[in-house]
């Protein structure tokens, strides 16, 4: 299994191009199931999760093409891909494909809307929490679907004539359930209102894609989405937004090591809460014409307390990286994880660097230290893995991060991007 070896202590200096957002690319690809015309996506990141979803979509009969770089397009620019679901040949999403990635469960919305039936494996638990699907099922039932659970599969059937618009009020904010009901409602008969919808920028990216495909949606970017069902959707060309979690991750890496990094293509408004927190730690952030500049000039890192929340709050997907930063602050920071009940798997690994962290229920208390020491570490999820890379970049001596396939699921060209900015980092095969 590949590992990442790094030697800490170098400041990061240079430019890092921000890739397309994984968590926007995945639902955008799934939206292609809603139409028999081609959906063209640009700025698609080269990631293991994208590849995995390609397999799932191909199983449903989607033709997928990756186009070469266009003249004038720089290296590092994301892929331009076409997803063409002319015919859905299979409405089953099997266990061996769905169990590898939770987002693949979201195909249930478009399949049910377009084919009036779907049989999708339950995604199961995962390292960061139980992650149930009750909100998806309640929402689809509100649109008239009949749902059975059979041998680990959700078997869903729309009423004769298809799904019917309804009001769906989520008792809890869910990104995946919002994507799914939004997509399903585009082809339902009548009006659907989604209350307490997720407002993440990735939802807006998908909603705008659906509008470009002919859907009628109002309230985009707010807590209430209103969808007027239409008979059919058509093809469109849509760009994947830049990855706000990658942006925040590199900003925290630069804050940790010191230096001066320009994150090109970053959209600061997509992670304002995290940037406000970073500013509180003493980092200088400047919006420039082509991106966000992050600088720390030898000043220490100030401790800040943080609580994760749905957008526009501080994202749970940056909690582990921020904790890494706080291990070297000049005081005590409290971090409260409110989205997932088990998202502290990185704590035991950060402690291997010499960090002082204790966890009590939802709250982690991090007592900053002047210096971490390199260590052998491994992580069980994507964002936890990258928090270990960040810690290693600042730690004294050598760090080896094992099980890095998690990183390849969500960070495009991580070692290349960091080493171009002066980090001593390499992938070791085997
Ligand atoms: C999305 O997951 C992201 N994944 C996650 O990113 C992210 O951490 C999460 O949203 C929160 O921002 C993608 O976009 C592909 P949720 P999702 O449904 O949709 C509970 C990463 O590292 N819930 O918003 O699965 C759930 O258990 C990943 O890129 C129910 O109770 O998250 C959690 O506590 C990890 N019932 C909360 O809601 C349900 O039916 C929020 O989860 C659904 C969810």
Q: Give the count of helical stretches.
A: 14
- What proportion of the residues is helical, as a percent range? 25-40%
Tell how many strands the DSSP assignment holds.
24
On the 0 to 100 scale, the average pLDDT is: 94
What proportion of the residues form beta strands (DSSP E)?
Answer: 25-35%
Radius of gyration: 22 Å
Derived from helix and strand composition plus strand pairing, the structural class reads: alpha/beta
Query: Biggest sheet, open or closed, and with what strands and sense?
Result: 4 strands, mixed
Give a concise summary.
With 430 residues, the protein is α/β, with parallel strands linked by helices. The chain has helices at 22-31, 48-60, 95-98, 108-115, 134-142, 175-186, 201-212, 244-257, 272-280, 319-326, 346-351, 382-394, 405-410, 414-419; strands at residues 3-7, 12-17, 39-44, 63-67, 79-84, 92-93, 117-121, 146-150, 153-157, 167-169, 191-195, 216-218, 225-228, 236-239, 259-264, 284-288, 291-296, 306-307, 332-336, 356-360, 363-367, 376-378, 398-402, 424-428. It is built from 14 helices and 24 strands.
Protein traits:
single chain; 430 residues; alpha/beta; 4-stranded mixed sheet; 14 helices
Structure explained in plain terms:
- This protein has 430 residues and is of the alpha/beta class.
- Helices cover 30% and strands 26% of the residues.
- It is built from 14 helices and 24 strands.
- The protein has helices spanning 22-31, 48-60, 95-98, 108-115, 134-142, 175-186, 201-212, 244-257, 272-280, 319-326, 346-351, 382-394, 405-410, 414-419, and strands at residues 3-7, 12-17, 39-44, 63-67, 79-84, 92-93, 117-121, 146-150, 153-157, 167-169, 191-195, 216-218, 225-228, 236-239, 259-264, 284-288, 291-296, 306-307, 332-336, 356-360, 363-367, 376-378, 398-402, 424-428.
- The strands form six sheets. A four-stranded mixed sheet has the order 22-23-1-24.
- A hairpin with a 2-residue loop joins β16 and β17 (291-296).
- α1 packs parallel to α2 (48-60), α8 (244-257) packs parallel to α10 (319-326) and α10 (319-326) packs parallel to α12 (382-394).
- The longest helix is centred in the middle third of the chain and has 14 residues, at 244-257.
- The protein starts with a strand and ends with a strand.
- The model has no long low-confidence stretch (mean pLDDT 94).
- Ligand EPZ is lined by residues 23, 26, 102-103, 129, 131-136, 172, 174-177, 316-317, 339-340, 382-383, 410.
């Amino acid at each position: 299994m590949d590992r990442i070896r790094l030697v800490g202590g170098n400041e990061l200096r240079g430019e890092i191009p921000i890739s397309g957002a994984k968590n926007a690319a995945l639902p955008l690809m799934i939206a292609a199931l809603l139409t028999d015309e081609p959906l063209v996506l640009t700025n698609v990141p080269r990631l293991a999760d994208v590849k995995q979803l390609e397999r799932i979509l191909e199983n449903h009969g989607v033709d997928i093409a990756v186009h070469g770089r266009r003249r004038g397009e720089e290296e590092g620019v994301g892929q331009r891909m076409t997803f063409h679901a002319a015919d859905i040949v299979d409405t089953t999403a099997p266990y061996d494909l769905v169990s590898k990635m939770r987002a693949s469960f979201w195909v249930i919305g478009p399949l049910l809307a377009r084919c009036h039936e779907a049989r999708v494996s339950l995604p199961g638990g995962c390292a960061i929490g139980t992650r149930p699907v009750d909100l998806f099922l309640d929402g689809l039932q509100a649109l008239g679907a009949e749902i059975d659970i059979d041998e680990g599969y959700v078997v869903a059937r729309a009423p004769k004539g298809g799904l019917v618009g309804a009001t769906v009020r989520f008792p809890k904010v869910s990104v995946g359930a919002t994507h799914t009901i939004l997509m399903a409602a585009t082809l339902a008969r009548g009006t659907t209102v989604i209350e307490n919808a997720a407002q993440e920028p990735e939802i807006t990216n998908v909603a705008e894609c659906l509008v470009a495909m002919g859907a009628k949606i109002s309230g985009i970017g707010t807590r209430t989405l209103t969808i007027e069902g239409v008979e059919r959707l058509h093809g469109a060309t849509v760009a994947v937004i830049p990855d706000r979690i990658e942006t925040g991750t590199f900003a925290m890496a630069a804050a940790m090591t010191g230096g001066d990094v320009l994150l090109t293509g970053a959209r600061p408004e997509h992670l304002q809460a995290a940037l406000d927190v970073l500013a509180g730690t003493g980092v200088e952030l400047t919006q420039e014409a082509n991106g966000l500049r992050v600088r720390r000039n030898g000043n220490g890192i100030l401790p800040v307390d943080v609580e994760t929340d749905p957008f526009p709050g501080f994202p749970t997907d940056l909690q582990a990286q921020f904790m890494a930063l706080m291990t070297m602050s000049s005081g005590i920071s409290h971090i409260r994880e409110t989205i997932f009940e088990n998202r502290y798997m990185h704590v035991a690994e950060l402690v291997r660097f010499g960090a002082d962290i204790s966890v009590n229920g939802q709250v982690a208390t991090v007592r900053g230290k002047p210096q971490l020491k390199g260590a052998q570490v491994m992580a069980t999820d994507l964002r936890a893995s990258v928090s270990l890379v960040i810690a290693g970049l600042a730690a004294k001596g050598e760090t080896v991060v094992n099980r890095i396939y998690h990183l390849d699921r969500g960070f495009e060209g991580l070692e290349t991007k960091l080493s171009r900015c002066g980090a001593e980092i390499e992938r070791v095969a085997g």
